[in-house]
User: Fold these one by one.
Assistant:
Number 1:
Amino acid sequence: MAVIATGCQNKHELTSGVKLDNLDTTARLQDDFYQYACGGWMKNNPLDAEHSRYGAFDVLGEKALKDVNDLIDSVKDARNDAGSLEDKIATMYNLGMDSAKLQADGMEPLRPFLEEINNLKTRADVWSELRRMHKRGNIVLFGVFGEADKDDAKQCIAWAYQGGLGLGDRDYYLLDEGRNAQFREGYVALMEKEFAMAGYDRMSGIRADKLAQMVMNFETRLARAMNTKLQNRDPQATFNRYTVAEAQKFTPNIDWAEYFADMNILDGMKSFNIAQPQYFEEVNRVMKDADVEVMKAYFAWHEIVGAAPYLSDEFVNANFEFFGKMMSGREVNRPRWKRVTSTVEGAMGEALGQLYVRKHFPAEAKTRMVTLVDNLITALGQRIDQATWMTDATKKNAHEKLSTIYVKIGYPDKWRDYSGLEIKNDSYYANVVRSNKFDMAYNFSKINKPVDKDEWLMTPQTVNAYYNPTTNEICFPAAILQPPFFDMHADEAANYGAIGVVIGHELTHGFDDQGRQYDKDGNLNDWWTEQDAANFKQNSQILVDAFSAVKVLDEPETYANGELTLGENIADNGGLHVSYLAMQNAMTKHQVNKDQMDGFTPEQRFFLAYAAVWASNIRPEAILQLTQMDVHALGRNRVNVALPQVTEFIDAFGIKDGDGMWLAPEKRAMLW
Ligand SMILES: [Zn+2]
């Protein structure tokens, strides 16, 4: 235990914030900093069968889940007032845990939905069913959600978005890289199996293998018309305003007016966004030419696969074998209590969040976070002033945006009302459907109205943080404000390296390749001079190239995707620079111990704490899946590829030309 130097404001003893057990001191940090900083953690926390990736983030996620489960435990056997929140939580949880009833019910809770679909006769019937499915949150063919108007971000409008693929993303259908071909085979096999298990083959009079092939062909057709994930990262290209009349002209076979009227949002609608117009041209063709039997098979499949996690073990296991095991590399499914806790949390997250913060979020943590965030905002302002690649005109606009960032810490001031959510003692799945319907209606109810800035997009028990460009807000839920991110008993150097970089990361999202296209009011509005925008792009390309050069897997040979992860990598890069400067500011105010603690300088403790956040073990299947789908780089790369870009890191550890972590100064990105 180190003692704080005299003259510091915190007189009581603080730890260094560096857990020595996490280190692998046999590794040469100049060559492989990740191994040095996290090797001990990785050895001490081997992967269990339940996880295909397990890291410091996941440890906290598991802890939050256990905390929430304890809260549920305290109400599940109590005599709760009928219709009370406690009663709803208890009823839904107990039905999910009642294994005997789940097995006995089998597919019965799903039957009414399948019969409804099997009875469809015409394309008009199909169109009506699509709207019913959307109302219960089953997104087939496309989705409609309430989101900000990007020209007037104070207003919420309807967004029509591509969607409705069982595999989630077009690439799985269209690319042969990685294990995609194998996934397609596995997916068809899963469909065949579950169609038969649900009895839809007998119901429809079509063989299960035939049904599976019909769905696969149809989803592949949809996939061909869809944007890639990269194309969807373009905020300009995905904002295309239509009035209902214009949309009717553009896609005459989609009855938009009827759709919106059915969702109670036609009245008062001035215009809406079609995010991927070329995709909706294909939907338009589908509405005209699709075979009714194919549409029925497609709808039935989405009912089955969506319901499977909430039915008997036969369905749960079939889904897991494909999505959990084959695609993600997990060996066994999560225990029932974890799955059901997640589901109840998904249904009544803010109700549980309210109980969670009362028990797990001390007022002192909020006070210290407020100070940290203020210090980070000040530091980003200084970084903007110091930037040599940007003109004063753009700097002025950047400052304006920074000064209006809206900060949320811990938990919302007002909580969501669940009194309209009906939970009955019939079946687990029936309640999941009611909850989905409740959420969809809630989402639709926001459309054509002012955006509620005080709404939270994450629950307090979520171990994460976010930046929302259209409200220009950063949000840090209570559950992330714990070690290894934030330690009330540690010297501030480590806190700046961990939660400080997270704060800096979220702030930088306001200025990354996407965020910089929004102004202080959250509108898509270019506030950059042409030269500054060109400099930004050129500097960003350094990060694209650095990450794309990294091989993440030998077999099948796979490289990281620097383009897909650009926004996140810019945010890490900015977060590191900004939080480091904030720490330097704090040092001049004697808020950081300048002496070595546990043998490390404050600068070194900063980077060790940063790396510790990304300590994780991961299976090849998860490497492949995340590299293909995740906009975040892998934990190892967020350390070993991100840090050589940062001169302060190179200096803190005396990294030299020839070391593995070395990058020549002219190859380091200059952004925020
Ligand atoms: Zn991020």
Number 2:
Amino acid sequence: MVEEVAAVDAYAARVSAVVLEIEPDGLVLDRTVFYPRGGGQPGDTGFIRWDGGELVVTDTVRRNGRPVHVYADDPPSVGSEVEAEIDWERRYLLMRTHTALHSLSAIIWRDFDAKVTGGNMEPGAARMDFELEGISIEFGQQVEDKLNEELAVDHPVEILFLPRDEALADPDLIRTKVNLLPDFIDPIRIVHIVGLDKQADGGTHVASTSEVGTVRVVKTESKGKANKRIRIELT
Ligand SMILES: [Zn+2]
């Protein structure tokens, strides 16, 4: 089992580890702070350093259930002790962006009864699609105002690990299709923005919505009937 620090502590930027396995394009560590891409959040980038060497990690992906640190340099040998360090500035921006997206989806659900149909993010910018019949510039402005109002409220963000049975019985979580998660996932990791949103999620988030700062709705567009897209940027 690889110890995945990001799942419990998103603020850990660096960790000591041992190289478990070398793959043609990446390596597996026994412990890591790198987040493997998933749930719309890109994989972390950063560095792995060891006695006499260093490599640049250009992406992190999940393969056979384990985070693989993707690189293009010469790797250390299996069994080497290393320091793994993420590009913290990029990751922190992703944490702020991810929490902004969950807040956005919560507001659209709470005030407009519309579910999310898809989404994606890059550091500082994101898009999310909703089951909305119509959309307009005025609607985008209204959403932006509501979002910034909620972010400023300073809602704490908690990470919970709920037994599967308990998660499946929670009405807030059923809305986000927690029942569609594969059976073997137990307990289920939950990101709870207290007073605003609760959903099963593997990503990294800030500890409070106030850390997101303010957000701008930069574009609203129709992607078909009952599918409308909102693009946001962190300011
Ligand atoms: Zn998420």
